Amino acid sequence: MTDEARGDDSGGLRATGWLRVALLVGAVALTAILASSGAVFTSTNYRVVGYTAGFGTLFAFWQAAPVVIAIFRPLLAWCVLVPSFVVSLVVRPIDPSEPWPLLPTALIAYLVVQLAVSLRRSLLVAVPAWLLASAALVTLAVRHQPRVAPGPDITLFVLLSALMLVAGTSIRLVSQARNRLAEEEHLTAEERHRRRLLEERARIAREMHDIVAHHMSMIVVQASTAEYRLEGLNAAAKEEFTSISETARESLTEMRRLLKVLREEGTDPQRVPQPGLERIPSLVESTERAGTPVRLHLGQVPDRIPELIGLTAYRVVQESLSNVVRHASGAPTEVTVSAEDARLTVRIVNDAPKGKPAPVESTGAGHGLVGMRERVRLAAGELVAGPRPEGGFGVWASLPLAPASAGQSDGPSAGQTNGRSVGQLDGRSKGHA
């Protein structure tokens, strides 16, 4: 049965693991003490009307056992304990001046049960439970000693039980508030991550538009001028080139409409050439001017590579160096770009900074690893980013050079590369330096 079915309103307040074991052991020990003490009280300080052998011990255990029950079912413990107040009418103090209408052990047990009820139940349950028990206690006091007004001990008990009510309710409300805050923070973090991912995808889409639009424009120009550049074209060939030109022009128009949706209001719609591998040296130089020493190793790379792959490699290096400047400023850094087996490999590693490093992912405007992972995934590549075994941080990306392979697969999940760690890839990539 779920907590909701039982009416549990603890707000996630639970004792688990060793804490639950400790509470259970403590409850059992307290029950044993209260039961044995209660049995002694019934034989020394109280007399039982119609006394039979063993009744005092059984009665004392009845009033002590709810302490253990309260660990699991506090309301059930209350329902077991409070009826014993009525049964206690057969128990009378030997000394007529004794103000307590109940065994002192029963009153201690009730304080524990009231605290448990307040911790696990709402005020709609805890307050009526306290009122009923207090009213029953005062009624019993008058019943036991009709000629004497309830003494200060009764007042003290009512106040102590009220204190248990307030303490338990306060703890429960604080726990509920903390749980709600933690849940809201978790949802906020997820929403922030989702928003950053969508923003990065929109940014990638805008850059992709510039790349594809360039090629589409070339198709339009070549198809439109084919009949003037090529001699001897028959009517069917001219009509085919005209159809290609019109189709490409329509596609380009649709792409521009899509771009209007993707571009944020107020941004400059001017198209600029997208950076590629040729811009990496200038990127390294600007990073060195910022105070971070960077060594660049450019291996044998084909003269012509897909624009998407070149742009992705540039963005990976750009964001990695930005992270180094932000979180490990001044740490020696190494950038390696090489091609092997029809794949472009990009590796950026930095040593541990001298001071305390800042977190890699910040909550600011930067997209950080989120953008790198999304870019590499869209390019059907692989990415691993994380701390290095010898200290510092490393980013390793592998991108396909064949245009047909890009987009065929979503690639591995972000942060994973077929189970390989950053340290393993770091060692493997050093051969390209």
UniProtKB/TrEMBL annotation:
<feature type="transmembrane region" description="Helical">
    <location>
        <begin position="154"/>
        <end position="174"/>
    </location>
</feature>
<keyword id="KW-0812">Transmembrane</keyword>
<keyword id="KW-0547">Nucleotide-binding</keyword>
<keyword id="KW-0902">Two-component regulatory system</keyword>
<feature type="region of interest" description="Disordered">
    <location>
        <begin position="402"/>
        <end position="433"/>
    </location>
</feature>
<keyword id="KW-0472">Membrane</keyword>
<dbReference type="Pfam" id="PF02518">
    <property type="entry name" value="HATPase_c"/>
</dbReference>
<dbReference type="InterPro" id="IPR003594">
    <property type="entry name" value="HATPase_dom"/>
</dbReference>
<feature type="transmembrane region" description="Helical">
    <location>
        <begin position="21"/>
        <end position="42"/>
    </location>
</feature>
<feature type="transmembrane region" description="Helical">
    <location>
        <begin position="124"/>
        <end position="142"/>
    </location>
</feature>
<protein>
    <recommendedName>
        <fullName>histidine kinase</fullName>
        <ecNumber>2.7.13.3</ecNumber>
    </recommendedName>
</protein>
<feature type="transmembrane region" description="Helical">
    <location>
        <begin position="48"/>
        <end position="68"/>
    </location>
</feature>
<feature type="compositionally biased region" description="Polar residues">
    <location>
        <begin position="406"/>
        <end position="421"/>
    </location>
</feature>
<dbReference type="GO" id="GO:0005524">
    <property type="term" value="F:ATP binding"/>
</dbReference>
<feature type="domain" description="Signal transduction histidine kinase subgroup 3 dimerisation and phosphoacceptor">
    <location>
        <begin position="200"/>
        <end position="265"/>
    </location>
</feature>
<dbReference type="InterPro" id="IPR050482">
    <property type="entry name" value="Sensor_HK_TwoCompSys"/>
</dbReference>
<keyword id="KW-1133">Transmembrane helix</keyword>
<dbReference type="Pfam" id="PF07730">
    <property type="entry name" value="HisKA_3"/>
</dbReference>
<dbReference type="GO" id="GO:0046983">
    <property type="term" value="F:protein dimerization activity"/>
</dbReference>
<keyword id="KW-0597">Phosphoprotein</keyword>
<keyword id="KW-0067">ATP-binding</keyword>
<dbReference type="InterPro" id="IPR036890">
    <property type="entry name" value="HATPase_C_sf"/>
</dbReference>
<feature type="domain" description="Histidine kinase/HSP90-like ATPase">
    <location>
        <begin position="313"/>
        <end position="402"/>
    </location>
</feature>
<keyword id="KW-0418">Kinase</keyword>
<dbReference type="GO" id="GO:0000155">
    <property type="term" value="F:phosphorelay sensor kinase activity"/>
</dbReference>
<keyword id="KW-0808">Transferase</keyword>
<feature type="transmembrane region" description="Helical">
    <location>
        <begin position="75"/>
        <end position="94"/>
    </location>
</feature>
<dbReference type="InterPro" id="IPR011712">
    <property type="entry name" value="Sig_transdc_His_kin_sub3_dim/P"/>
</dbReference>
<dbReference type="GO" id="GO:0016020">
    <property type="term" value="C:membrane"/>
</dbReference>
<feature type="transmembrane region" description="Helical">
    <location>
        <begin position="100"/>
        <end position="117"/>
    </location>
</feature>
